[in-house]
Amino acid sequence: MKLKQLEGLLGDLQQFSNPKVELEQYPTGPHIASRMLFTAENSYGDITDKVVADFGCGCGTLSAAASLLDAACVIGFDIDPESLETAALNAEDLEVEIDFVQCDITKLELKGRTVDTVVMNPPFGTRKKGADMEFLSAAMKVASQAVYSLHKTSTREHIKRAALRDFNAKSAEVICELRYDLPKLYKFHKRKEVDIAVDLWRFEPRQNN
Amino acid sequence: MRLITHNMLSCNIKGVTNGFPLKIEAEKVIEKEVDFNPDFLRHMFAKIEWKALVEAARSMGYAELPEDSPDAAAIDSADETFLRKLHHALLELHLEEGALVCPETGRKFPVNKATFWTHIDSVDQSGGSASMWTT
């Protein structure tokens, strides 16, 4: 599948109808999602024929991208039932198989190391402090091959230190810097649109367990 | 939900020491064909909890998997029969409606429209949320 085609398909997905601010629900746009997964597969071979988990999947954009790039199995995890309903509809529209699990990711313990790759666009920690780190910690416990995640560029040094020192990362690399366009979604947003600098990270867990 | 996913899930309610594997109560099971990928299956085989898979498949109406996990030689051989059974059990059986049950507490977690729900309360607007994982 070509990048443009992937981006096009992701652009047709339904997004949050009723976004919950305390969960930092923002859609992962097709531009970012397609590039993130395309790079994960074309540069690193982390998607096709792999078991891929999407942490904080929301409406399932990253999950859908992984499926479209022929992951062997995709599982989306999210705490919000409404988003998962939308995610399930999206999967049906695209005619891809995605298993969804509704749970609190910070309390999740998966058996074994069946998951190869975790992809995620986690909360940045603007509502619940430290949420970004909680997601990263959870992902690093589960993935056997790689974790792809988006974090604010302003947190770069902090993330790198935590990943290598506390979360069992063998490597922590910023693959590219992206501009995340956030449309005015919530009442408290003053500007019509805002642009945030985010890093696309690739983490490799150490091979123990 | 497919059994490849079920094979990873355990009950994490506080106090539960062995919440794996979750028992399956199947109300609606459907089968969907998927492309056969022997390399992927060989790679997965080493990571699967075998007994849990056999029992789960049986609950879904599929009893073709051998009780005892075959040895590595059987997996590497050219005979595809075993791999085809593994393929079917892991990837082609879907639990559409039913429940996963904690083996220790008997707590039931619903599966509907193929989604597995650990709790069905909507998220508390004040920022907290009730979670079945730690009750």
From TrEMBL, chain A:
It comes from the Eukaryota. Keywords: Coiled coil. Residues 84-111 form a coiled coil. SUPFAM superfamilies: S-adenosyl-L-methionine-dependent methyltransferases. Pfam families: MTS. One of its GO terms (molecular function) is nucleic acid binding. Residues 44-139 form the Methyltransferase small domain. InterPro entries: DNA_methylase_N6_adenine_CS, rRNA_MeTrfase/Polyamine_Synth, SAM-dependent_MTases_sf, Small_mtfrase_dom. CDD domains: AdoMet_MTases. Belongs to the methyltransferase superfamily. PrmA family. This is Methyltransferase-like protein 5. It comes from Brassica carinata (Ethiopian mustard).
UniProtKB/TrEMBL annotation, chain B:
Pfam families: Trm112p. GO terms for biological process: rRNA (guanine-N7)-methylation; tRNA methylation. One of its GO terms (molecular function) is protein heterodimerization activity. InterPro entries: Trm112, Trm112-like. CDD domains: Trm112-like (cd21089). It comes from the Eukaryota. Belongs to the TRM112 family. Interacts with TRM9. This is Multifunctional methyltransferase subunit TRM112-like protein. It comes from Brassica carinata.
